[in-house]
């Protein structure tokens, strides 16, 4: 029922909501509030973000943030068991939650008139979740089954798990948000309780409200329901940025599959750790240029012209808490081996490094990125998530307002510069998914 948000996905994450019409307030207890008025219908989306996720965990308790997300629906003394679900449904709304590497988020979409009840429920469970042996055992079993269905039984997900472990050797993104099986097998109720009391505090949370609301009314309600919660000192993990350059790394996962695929990653900084911020935007443009859509370089050359690949995509998300990776994924054609396709991708990148994007190519890419930005504004959820994400990774919200403008300033020479500096095949991380060897006759 609740969605699992993986540490890394291959979906574009570059379109951000406008920040100029966002109201910001901080309560005395440290709770940050962001309100965006969207008067399309009498509906409001409420999200509560906590600065905790898979990247906060250490070996031995991986997966605990996601498990706690499940336990947050166990009820409180005031609203036991599934009262939250029933209440939101009775108000004509829906609710859900998600755990990622850098955050955990809970949200409700309801009529605007239901906002007081939503705030009441969210404020109550911020400090008052009822932990029991029965609920812990039940939700741990649910999480293990989820891992089995979405990770262990899905070849591409298992490949991603190995890829992350190899690519992020000294980085908190080393493990998936779902956690390692051994850690889940040894998780205790006391572990979950300690994690809850450490991170679920108003001064470690962000309240995002987007919809048909009046900011002053939202702030008054927040003060009424969240204001009485006492803040606590939150001991954050020590900085673990991870190196940005390694030697060549390679792993192969053999499974009973028919279609091969592979992931290749290049360790790069995130936005916060680039001294020259234009480099982050140049990598975004590079990802779009290589395989951002069907007309990009790699699909055009390898899929349609040479027919050596069935599919290819590229991805770079600059907005993360820790250093990131520039990722290319591909599915080779039936008559093409994965290593051979890697070589062809390397050839295309070498061409780009020595022959800059044309003015026409660069302009088309910038239009595509700006179009993604405009499209995102159609969704209340997308607008709220963009605000909450930036707040959760300690970046200024106005980055969203100027994102496309910064992309527009990227030059072809800058795209070449970041390609030469960071896309180095002598330091690539390669993860192959291959069929099991055929038995000898």
Helix and strand content put the structural class at alpha+beta
Number of domains: 2
Task: Identify the overall geometry.
Answer: globular
Q: What do we call the CATH topology of the largest domain?
A: Cytochrome Bc1 Complex, Chain A, domain 1
Specify the CATH homologous superfamily of the largest domain.
Metalloenzyme, LuxS/M16 peptidase-like
**Strand fraction:** 15-25%
What's the level 1 CATH class of the largest domain?
A: Alpha Beta
Contiguous uncertain segments of 5+ residues: 1-18
Largest sheet: 6 strands, mixed
Percent range of helical residues: 40-55%
What is the overall number of helices? 15
**Span of the ends, CA to CA:** 47 Å
**Could you tell me the number of beta strands?**
11
CATH architecture of the largest domain: 2-Layer Sandwich
Task: Output mean pLDDT.
Answer: 93
- Computed over alpha carbons, the radius of gyration is 23 Å
The strands making up the biggest β-sheet line up spatially as 1-2-6-3-5-4
What is the N-to-C succession of helices and strands? EEEHHEEHHHHHEHEEHHEEHHHHHE
């Amino acid at each position: 029922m609740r969605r699992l948000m993986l540490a890394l996905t291959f979906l574009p994450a570059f379109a951000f909501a406008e920040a100029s019409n966002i109201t910001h307030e901080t309560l005395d207890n440290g709770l940050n509030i962001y309100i965006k008025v969207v008067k399309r219908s009498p509906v409001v989306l409420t999200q509560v973000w906590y600065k905790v996720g898979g990247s906060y965990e250490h070996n031995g308790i991986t997966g605990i943030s996601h498990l706690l997300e499940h336990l947050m629906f166990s009820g409180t003394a005031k609203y036991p068991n599934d009262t939250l679900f029933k209440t939101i449904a009775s108000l004509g709304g829906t609710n859900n939650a998600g755990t990622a590497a850098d955050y955990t988020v809970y949200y409700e979409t309801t009529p605007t008139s239901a906002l007081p009840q939503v705030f009441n429920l969210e404020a109550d469970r911020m400090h008052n979740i009822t932990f029991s042996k029965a609920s812990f055992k039940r939700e741990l079993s649910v999480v293990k089954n989820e891992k089995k269905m979405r990770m262990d039984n899905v070849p591409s997900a298992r490949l991603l798990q190995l890829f992350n472990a190899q690519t992020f050797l000294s980085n908190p993104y080393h493990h998936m948000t779902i956690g390692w099986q051994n850690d889940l097998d040894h998780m205790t109720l006391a572990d979950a309780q300690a994690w809850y009391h450490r991170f679920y505090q108003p001064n470690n949370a962000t309240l995002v409200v987007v919809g048909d609301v009046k900011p002053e009314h939202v702030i008054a309600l927040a003060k009424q329901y969240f204001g009485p919660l006492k803040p606590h000192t939150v001991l954050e993990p020590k900085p673990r940025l991870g190196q940005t350059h390694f030697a060549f790394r390679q792993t192969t996962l053999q499974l009973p599959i028919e279609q091969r695929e592979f992931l290749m990653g290049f360790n790069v900084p995130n936005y916060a750790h680039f001294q020259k911020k234009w480099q982050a935007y140049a990598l975004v443009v590079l990802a779009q240029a290589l395989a951002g859509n069907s007309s990009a370089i790699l699909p055009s050359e390898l899929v349609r012209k040479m027919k050596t690949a069935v599919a290819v995509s590229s991805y770079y998300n600059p907005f993360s808490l820790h250093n990131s990776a520039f990722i290319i994924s591909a599915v080779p054609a039936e008559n093409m081996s994965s290593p051979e396709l890697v070589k062809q991708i390397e050839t295309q990148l070498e061409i780009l490094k020595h022959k800059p994007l044309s003015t026409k190519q660069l302009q088309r890419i910038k239009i595509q990125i700006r179009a993604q930005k405009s499209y995102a504004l159609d969704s209340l959820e997308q607008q709220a998530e963009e605000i909450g994400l930036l707040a959760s990774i300690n970046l200024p919200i106005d980055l969203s307002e100027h994102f496309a403008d910064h992309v527009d300033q990227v030059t072809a020479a800058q795209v070449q510069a970041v390609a030469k500096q960071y896309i180095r095949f002598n330091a690539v991380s390669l993860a192959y998914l291959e069929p099991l060897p055929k038995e000898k006759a």
